[in-house]
């Protein structure tokens, strides 16, 4: 295992960032009428999952703050799954793309929960 120096070295961050980029590209095809609602929301929550993880990493010397930011990241990942559900239900994304991204967020959430349950491995 390579030494983790920044949040960018975390596998969970890399996966969340990759998913956020995929969602950004995918949401470009959403209808214009969704610009200030679904498109904006799914982009924000997917990006926020990454941003909160970066914040957690910077707060890792304070156990409770670290866990709190991981929880925020987990919440944003879960919110992204809801927006993915709406996107599929409205016919903006295909079932297979929905399933792939939804599964990716399940992995992200599992990794965040693991970090929260074992904070001593990550905190200073």
Walk me through what this model shows:
By secondary structure, the protein is an all-alpha fold. It has a single domain, classed as de novo design (two linked rop proteins) (Up-down Bundle), CATH 1.20.1440. The chain is 71% helix and 0% strand. It is built from 4 helices and no strands. The chain has helices at residues 11-27, 38-58, 63-89, 95-117. Helix 1 packs antiparallel against helix 2. The longest helix is centred in the middle third of the chain and has 27 residues, at 63-89. The chain starts with 10 loop residues before the first helix and ends in a 7-residue tail after the last helix. 31% of the residues are buried. The model has no long low-confidence stretch (mean pLDDT 96).
Q: What's the CATH H-level superfamily name?
A: 23S rRNA-intervening sequence
Q: How many individual helices?
A: 4
Overall 3D shape? elongated
Note poorly predicted spans: none
Number of domains: 1
> Mean of the pLDDT scores?
96
The CATH architecture term is Up-down Bundle
Kindly provide the radius of gyration, computed on alpha-carbon positions and rounded to a whole number of angstroms.
Answer: 15 Å
**Share in helix:** over 70%
For the largest beta-sheet, the strand count, sense and barrel status come to: none
Please write the string of helix (H) and strand (E) elements.
HHHH
Helix/sheet category? mainly alpha
Q: Can you count the beta strands?
A: 0
Termini Cα gap: 18 Å
The CATH class label is Mainly Alpha
CATH topology: de novo design (two linked rop proteins)
Strand content: under 5%
